[in-house]
Every structure is written in C-alpha cells, then in structure tokens.
Amino acid sequence: MELNYKSTRSSQTVTASQAILKGLSEDGGLFVPEYIPKLDVPMEALAQMSYQETAYEVMKLFLTDFTEEELKSCIAGAYDDKFDTKEIAPIHQADDAWFLELFHGATIAFKDMALSILPHLMITAAKKNHVDHEIVILTATSGDTGKAAMAGFADVRGTKIIVFYPKDGVSPVQEKQMVTQKGENTFVVGIHGNFDDAQTGVKKMFNDKALAQQLDDAGYQFSSANSINIGRLVPQIVYYVYAYARLVKAGEIKEGEKINIVVPTGNFGNILAAYYAKNMGLPVAKLICASNENKVLFDFFATGTYNRNRDFIVTSSPSMDILISSNLERLIYKISGEDSDKTRRLMEALSGQGSYEITEEMQAQLADFYGNFATEAETAAAIRSIYEKDGYVIDPHTAVAASVYHKYRSETGDHTKTVIASTASPYKFAGSVMPAIDEKYKGMPDFELIDALRQISGVAEPKAVTELRTAPVRHTTVCDADQMEQTVINWLMGQQLKNK
Asked: Which residues have CB under 8 Å from 379's CB, separation 6+?
C-alpha cells in the first residue's frame, strides 16, 4: 500500500520521493506520513538481522515508491566501511543504562546515521521524478549536520551543498571538520549570529519565490539536508528498532518488554524518530527529552507554552543550542488532530510573536514524553561520574541525557530498562570532556587533549580526528545573517561561470 506525505500546514500531498526532493513544503510546512505504518516483521526475526537488514524492513514501510532494489542499493551504499564498527550502532552498558552509540560514522556524530543515506535517497528520487536541474542542498547547522551532510554529498554528481554555521557557536573540532571539507561542490559559510539566525535565514530562502525563479532560470533547485527533510527522519527510526532487537537478542529484555528512551535534543528530530518508532509498535514506555540550559523544550513540556523569547546560551553541547525546535511542528500537527490550519496558526505565532500556547487537550496527548534539562555543572558532573564509576567516556550531549535520566529516575522511581542515545564521540568535544574529568586538563591545546583522551579511555582515535591534524582549511567565507541569500547567489553564479 502506497504511503504518501502531507504538509503540516495544508492539504498538499506528495510521494515519499517527492517529499525527500522538496525537503520543505511550498507552504512552509513539514512533510509527515499520512499514517504511521506498523512494523510487520516479528521481533524474533529482527533480533537476528544486521543493521542493514533492519534498515530495509523499517524504511520500506515509509518509502513505498522506492523499489526493493533501489532501497537496498541506497542502504548498501550508506552503511558500509565508512563506519568504524561492523555493527554500525553498537550498544554499551554503563551507569545502569544502555548507551546506543550513534557516532561511528565518518564525522563521529549521530547525524551520519541519516546523512550517509540521504544523498543516495535524493539522487534516486531525482531520477524517479525526472529532475533535470542541479540539486542545491541548503542547510543550517548547529555543529554536526553540516559536516555530515557535506561528507555525504561531497562530489556527488548533480548536487551542490551550501552549509551555514554560527561562526562562534561550534566546538573547535566541529569548525575544523567543516572548513577543511573537500569536494568541488561544497561551500561552507560562517555567520555572525547563532544557529537560530542561520536556520531562519535558510527557511527564508526556501520560501522566497523570486529566488526560486532566479535559481530555476539558472538550472538549480533547492533541497534540504536538515532534519526537517523526511529523508533524514525515516533513517533515524531504524536505530531505535535495531537497539531494541539487539537487547532482545542479548537476553537483556524479553520480547514485548517496554523500555524508556532518553534523547538529548535541540531540534527535536532525533526524539521524534523515537516517537515514530513507538507509534510503529516498538515497546517504548517513556520518551525522555533532555535539554541543556537552552531549555525551551523542557518549558514547553512543563507548561504547554513554547516561547523562544529568551537569552540564547552558548554551552558545551552546541548541537543543542537551539531556541526554535523545527521538528516539534510535526508533533504539534499530530496532537492537534492533524489540523493543518491550527498548526499553521501556531507556527505563525512562533514566527511573529516568538511564542505559542497549546490547548489542554493537546497537552494531555504529551503523556508519552518527560522533559528536563541539565546545567553546565550537571553536564560536567555526569561526564566525570560515569568515567569514575565505569571507565566510560561520554561527550557533553550524551552527558546532558545521562544527567536528565538520573533526574527522571529520582523523581519517578521508575527503573524501567533504558536506552540513552549517545549522539557524538567524546573525541569531538575533548575540550569540554577532559576538564570535566579532571581540571588539570583545562586550557590544554585541542590535540594534546585528544592524546590524553586516547590514553584514559583506551578507545582508538577515530580516523576523522586523525585526518584533521593535517587537513588544510578550504573554506573561509563569513557573512552577516542578512547577507546569506546574496552569498548563496554569488557562489552559485560563480560555479556556473567556472563550469562554462
């Protein structure tokens, strides 16, 4: 049965491949499946499957206009030796929980899990829809998406990728990963501002009809690699199903036994994927939403009011330094009874006044979720505590999740077995991780910290970090937020001249 996608803000309906190509609906809404399909493979069978086989069984239910051959080819091209472990997403037991390690890909962050496959899905979708324009991937990043997207799209024929990031709002390793990115079709721009400024600028360009016409005349069309693209969200569902199946196989849980899932989140995409997995029939009890000091999501779950009118705080977990959680719109649409008019009005209020309030009826439908946040001190304490107790080193984003998990258990007394999404390698944030473990590391140069981390963790330095030691800087463009559109036009037109 074909599963189509509709916009959260209108009745527009498209196929899966069209939704992946467009990224964002013309009305500014996000694409959501017409219904959430149910897992149709017994857990007993899933428990014996590889990551790639699990990916096919989950993704075939959402991407119904892809043939079996097309989808399996995309999966094989994505989940290969780019990952430094055959398991793709191994699970590590520590701190009375299971840490689902989502950082074994090319850029050592969880974004690799979806962005390794998105280029394959997009190129396949372009062929299916007879697209003859060059696809321009336009994306904003709070640190990880940009590099993972560029690593996926670098030198992919028929595509270009432009990434905007907050110049002073990412870790040194994150920035170096981006500005050293190879690929003639890649362009990285630092902006004077924060992630929300970058994301707002990108959305504005997507909704600019005059710009779309100008690009169309030049043979280009925009698409997105941000988590607003359904081609990002669907692959993220896979690893929650895989984690559950691995725990069943290991005898850690019984088939049908419910687990809790903790996700450190800023843009709400990763935890939304867990919510979709639950709606597919995965036995999940509580979805624990962990925020850092930019606790806009915690306040939303606590009060029913989403309010971005607050100070933006730069933290040690920069990928979560976000005040506008774009993917929350998909949840709002669901709990509104799939009312596109109501969703549009709420999103317009967010864009205009910077806040909106949901009804009590909508708030009652958030019972699946628990929200809390961790301060910077609590984040550092979690890193230190887990290292001292278990010898296991986690990054600051994962530490936010671990800290919130302890708060949840303390508040509720719920000891349901729990999976924590571990979203980045500690090597990516050695500058925060090592001083959290011991203050003697404070102020040491980045690569000295990385050497020290290797010694205390016993975990080999990832290839992505080793390459950074000598990689030359290739991208130096910086602009103000209001110059983003002109910067895009200048680069694309320059590329056209170069190719003539």
From this structure: 292, 315, 316, 317, 396, 399, 400, 403, 436
How many whole angstroms separate alpha carbon 344 and alpha carbon 329?
9
Give the three-class secondary structure for 480: strand
Which tens digit of pLDDT belongs to each residue from 180-227? 999 999 999 999 999 899 989 998 998 899 999 999 999 999 988 877
Q: What is the Cα 336 distance to its own chain's centre?
A: 24
* Integer Cα distance of 264 and 254 in angstroms: 26
d(CA 137, CA 486): 16
Rounded to whole angstroms, the Cα distance separating 180 from 234 reads 29
Tell me the residue type at 91.
I
Residue in the structure block whose two tokens are 């997507």: 206
Q: CB of 203 within 8 A of CB of 24? A: yes
- C-alpha span between 348 and 337 (Å, rounded): 18
Residue 45 CA to residue 264 CA, distance in Å, equals: 30
Residue in this structure with the two tokens 């549009």, named with its chain if needed: 344
3-class secondary-structure state, position 262: strand
Dihedral angle, C-alpha 9, 15, 19, 20, nearest 10 °: 160
SS3 137: strand
d(CA 322, CA 339): 26
